[in-house]
Amino acid sequence: MCPTGTSFQTASKSSLRSAFQVLDADGDGKISYDDLRAFYGGFSGPETSSEDVIGSMISVADSNKNGYVEYEEFEKVLNGRKKGNKNGRIGVMEDAFRVMDKDGDGKVGHEDLKSYLKCAGFEACDEDVKAMIRLGGGDENGGVTFEGLLKILAV
C-alpha cells in the first residue's frame, strides 16, 4: 500500500476497483446497506451515518434496484455516466473527502488518512501515510487537499 515511486492516472479502473473493495466490507462483490453503515460509522457523526442518508446513497447508485451496488453501478456513478449526472464522480469523491477531513480544515492530514485506512481495513505505517501525502502534493504537517487525495486514490 506504499505509493512511493508509483505512477498514477486519475480515476483508473484499478483505483475504482480498490475503492469498491474498501466499501464492500464483507467481500461479497456488492456494496450493501450494512457495508456503507459500517464504513461511514467509523468516520462521521450521525448526520452521515443515518439510515436515510445511507439508504439514499444506495438508491442513487442501485440502477437495477436490487438493493445493492454492484461494481458496474459503482463505476458508472463515479465516472459520472448516469443520465443527468455529469459530475457524479467528483461529487461522490468530495463527499468521501469531507468524511475523512474530520477537523474540516479542507485538508486530509496524517491522522485523518491513517484513521481512514485503518477503518477501511488497511494497516499503514506512519512512513506509508507520509509517502501518500507527499504523493498527493501535500506536506506532512498540513496534509493533502481534495485534488491531492484524488492523486493518492488513483494509484
UniProtKB/TrEMBL annotation:
Pfam families documented for this protein: EF-hand_7
GO terms for cellular component: organelle
EF-hand domain location: 11-46, 49-84, 88-123
Entry-linked InterPro entries: Centrin_CML-like, EF-hand-dom_pair, EF_Hand_1_Ca_BS, EF_hand_dom
Organism: Sesamum radiatum (Black benniseed)
Lineage: Eukaryota, Viridiplantae, Streptophyta, Embryophyta, Tracheophyta
Keyword entries, A-Z: Calcium, Repeat
Highest taxon, organism lineage: Eukaryota
Designated name of the protein: Calcium-binding protein CP1
Transmembrane segments: none
GO molecular function: calcium ion binding
